[in-house]
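Input.
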Amino acid sequence: MIEKTIHSAVSNFLQSEETANTDGEDLFVKEAFVDEGPTMRRFRPASMGRASRIRRRSSHLTVVVAEKD
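Output.
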């Protein structure tokens, strides 16, 4: 997933009108971080007629690409 996100960030950078003359080899990953995303809450049957909560967590992956000077 990280590799796919980096490829997408490079492609987005090269498609920008301001950076149309940039070569893909001159780019580097300036910043990469993961933030907490939304949590889906589900319930699962438990013993003795109870219900237990299940939290399906997700995350946001952000990659910032910049050009070498």
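The two ends are 28 Å apart (CA to CA).
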